[in-house]
Specification:
single chain; alpha/beta; Aminopeptidase
Length: 792
């Protein structure tokens, strides 16, 4: 055998093969040198061989005997290989031990049938080696198991429910009787954030999600919440009168200040312009404004910008039908979340440096009761505003003069306390794309009872979770994407719980949560409807309004609004909207909606102890349960579209009108500034054009795609999901400018701010950044880098 091996090796070495022609050098020897280039390819270099000729193999001669040994070895190898192949492919002998004859006969029959029944299963559950390594008993025991365990997974596509049937099924579960019980269960007299009552409600919701097998979890944060100092109450001193005040405004600056008392209507910028035109000094004054039109935080920010030293806010009789001593609560943080951990979560304050949000006011602010406000307005003095200015309120016993005459002293002594708050979550996982999810959320805390503010929303959240679970568990509903149900704490302080969650898990959720539906304040009255949303959700809102029946004198919710539904229904999303941080901070398409009284846009009992079941029943004509069921069906119907349809119900084309209007505002501003003749907004307009072309191309791709192809739909949906997130400016810090959205945010980076700026240098910089922000959104929508538009 050794001789045969030597002969074989000799023959092989005697012949050299190469696909590269070798030309001899002068000494008759050349070879190829192979090198790896930087791009990973091989480079071949023809170089002269080095070394002594003694190292080169010498030519060899072979005898007939060697050739014979070689042929004999080849034949022997062939025979051995054949025998090994034959043995390895032969069927093993089957033996049945310790079995009765009847069982042997049965088993024998099954062993013959096994290859036939396992043929379709084998590619899925096991490799073709299985029959060799296992005895025939394995196919017998596994054969019935495979179809049983795989049947639930394979069936959804076959038994997919029609959307109309799913919608009807959901409507049947949203009943007046169901909400009568749930609303009663969550109606509590007290529920302040971080209190024992708040924790008890959180545990109740968690246990409910656990019973529904929704894999519940909690998100715990340690936040700083301001509360009044019971030993040192807030005060106002005017003339010879001292007033101790019960209500308060969270996150107000503390301290004692004095200044001239000035009346500023609602504290809007245009209101303060009127005060200035009447030659009343705002710098150093204590500004008295009535609640409404804009948030408390915006009122305080506007006053601080004009140099006021403090702000007092009261409910005027023209806006609020309160008793004289009704106390107001609220917050004045021009932002959301814990302002002492801006841009990052409040998991543990000891781990982070002391930081303050840029939205925290630097001046004290305090609420007043009606009775105290009347006494101040009666003695304020100063000039009277023009009758057409709209400054006159509802108090008949006062003239609403502008003041600027008498001094007033304001003392705010609120204190910060550390509170542990719990957000509670439950999930119903999708069957196709479980890593894409919609979030439905509601706050459960309130200043007092918070019936409309918290009880209704929490009840809708829990009932929807129960309904969707039953539809999946018992009725065959198979959502393509996941539904997350969230109960937030510390919502009254500026969506603290929700924002801390967004800050804590931004990297995980910013590209996976494709819609947020707020359930806060969904019932405020009867007979009207309004909503605030990202333009991506306008079409879905319209569709849902046409589908959901109304029991208040109209066939559908759409009939309540009429054909010009967008003008009658849609409102800009304000900073105090619970959905706002999801849209403007995280770039998640968001929506909030409210059933209201006709010609009304607010629920006047928010932030008071009057937000009770009796007050809401009065506003709904004692149909709170029925309207709550309709509101729940409305939210559920939107969620159904978003998790059931092959394509996400987000309409990119609806952004065109909003973009065009915003860009037109920038054009107008640049035309008004004569010193920027060399600056043109045409590049911004081209970016807008790129956005619209990208949206058009996206819908062309949708029209030319088989929507039954799951992978193709996922690619299209990912392109749709980039839009809102890509409109967040990457050029600003979330600490200084948390609301980074180009269109709906707050700060110098927004198109609205650019359309108002008078600083030429700032205008140039922000215009350039906004242009590329918008172009980047268009590029993200395109998807493939080789399809990008190079117009800019």
């Amino acid at each position: 055998m050794d001789q045969m091996r030597l002969a074989f090796n000799g023959v092989v070495k005697s012949v050299r093969y190469s696909r590269f022609p070798l030309q001899p050098t002068e000494n008759g020897e050349r070879h190829l040198e192979v090198k790896l280039s930087e791009d990973g390819t091989e480079e071949f270099t023809d170089v002269e061989a080095e070394g002594s000729p003694s190292f080169r193999p010498a030519p060899q001669n072979y005898s007939r005997r060697s050739i014979a040994w070689l042929l004999l070895g080849t034949l022997l190898i062939f025979i051995v290989g054949y025998l090994v192949g034959y043995i390895s492919h032969s069927k093993p002998k089957v033996e049945f031990l310790n079995c009765s004859p009847e069982k042997n006969q049965t088993a024998g029959k099954q062993s013959v049938v096994a290859p036939v029944t396992q043929t379709p299963v084998a590619p899925v559950t096991q490799t073709p080696v299985a029959p060799v390594t296992q005895t025939p008993v394995a196919p017998v025991t596994q054969t019935p198991v495979a179809p049983v365990t795989q049947t639930p997974v394979a069936q959804p596509a076959e038994v997919e429910m029609d959307f109309k049937n799913i919608s009807q099924l959901l409507a049947k579960k949203m009943t007046r009787e169901a909400f009568q019980k749930t609303l009663g269960d969550f109606d509590k007299p007290r529920r302040s954030a971080g209190s024992d009552e708040d924790m008890s409600l959180a545990n109740s919701i968690f246990d409910g999600f656990k019973k529904l097998e929704m894999d519940p979890w909690t998100d715990i944060h340690y936040v700083q919440l301001p509360i009044p100092d019971s030993q040192n109450p807030n005060k106002v001193q005017f003339g010879s009168e001292d007033f101790s005040l019960a209500g308060y405004l969270a996150y107000s600056a503390t301290g004692r200040v004095q200044g001239k008392l000035v009346y500023g209507n609602y504290g809007r910028k245009e209101d303060l312009d009127i005060v200035t035109k009447n030659k009343v000094e705002l710098k150093g004054c204590v500004l008295l404004v009535r609640a409404g039109k804009i948030s408390f935080a915006e009122q305080v920010a506007n006053a601080a910008d004009r140099g006021a030293s403090a702000v007092l806010i009261y409910p005027d009789e023209a806006d609020y039908n309160y008793v004289a001593d009704t106390v107001l609560y609220g917050h004045v943080h021009l932002g959301s979340g814990d302002p002492y951990t801006p841009g990052f979560p409040s998991f543990n304050h000891t781990q982070f440096p002391p930081t303050r949000s840029s939205g925290l006011p630097k001046i004290p602010a305090q609420t007043l009761t009606r009775s105290v406000a009347v006494k101040l307005l009666q003695k304020i003095g100063g000039p009277e505003p023009n009758a057409t200015s709209g400054f006159k309120g509802g108090f008949k016993q006062v003239s609403y003069r502008l003041g600027g005459v008498e001094n007033i002293t304001v003392e705010v002594n609120n204190k910060l306390v550390n509170k542990e708050i719990h957000n509670v979550f439950g999930v119903i996982k999708g069957f196709d794309d479980p890593d894409r999810y919609i979030v439905l959320g509601a706050q459960r805390d309130a200043w007092g009872s918070g019936y409309a503010r918290a009880t209704v929303g929490t009840s809708v959240l829990v009932q929807l979770a129960k309904a969707f679970h039953e539809m999946v568990e018992n009725d065959g509903f198979r959502p393509r994407r996941s539904l997350v149900f969230a109960s937030w704490s510390a919502g009254e302080y500026g969506s603290v719980g929700a924002t801390e969650w967004l800050e804590g898990y931004m990297a995980s959720i910013d590209k996976k949560v494709f819609t947020y539906i707020s359930l806060d304040g969904v019932v405020m009255g009867k007979g009207g409807f309004m909503a605030s949303a990202s333009p991506l959700l306008y079409s879905l809102l319209e569709t849902t309004m046409k589908e959901v029946k109304s029991s208040v004198g109209a066939d559908t919710v759409y009939d309540m609004a009429g054909k010009t539904w967008d003008a009658n229904v849609m409102r800009p999303m304000t900073i105090d909207d619970p959905a706002y941080p999801f849209l403007a901070f995280s770039g998640i398409p968001s929506v909030s909606f409210h059933f209201i009284k006709p010609n009304s846009e607010v629920y006047t009992y928010y932030g008071t102890q009057l937000d009770t079941v009796d007050r809401l029943n009065y506003e709904t004509n004692h149909q709170t349960n029925e309207i709550t069921a309709i509101a729940a069906q409305f939210a559920g119907q939107m969620a159904l579209h978003l998790v059931h349809d092959h394509l996400l119900s987000l309409d990119v084309n609806r952004y065109s009108k909003t973009l065009t209007k915003a860009v037109a505002g920038v054009y107008k501003r640049i035309r008004l500034l004569s010193q920027v003749k060399d600056l043109s907004p045409s590049w911004l307009n081209r970016a807008r054009g790129s956005f619209q072309r990208a949206a058009s191309n996206l819908y062309n791709d949708i029209a030319n795609t088989n929507l039954d192809d799951k992978e193709a739909c996922r690619i299209l949906n990912d392109r749709i999901m980039t839009v809102e997130h890509s409109l967040l400016s990457p050029y600003v810090s979330p600490v200084e400018v948390p609301f980074r959205h180009l269109l709906f945010g707050r700060g110098s980076h927004t198109l609205a701010s650019i359309a108002e700026t008078t600083d030429v240098d700032e205008l140039r910089t922000q215009l350039a950044l906004a242009t590329w922000n918008l172009q980047g959104c268009a590029n993200a929508m395109v998807g493939n880098i080789w399809d990008l538009d190079e117009e800019i």
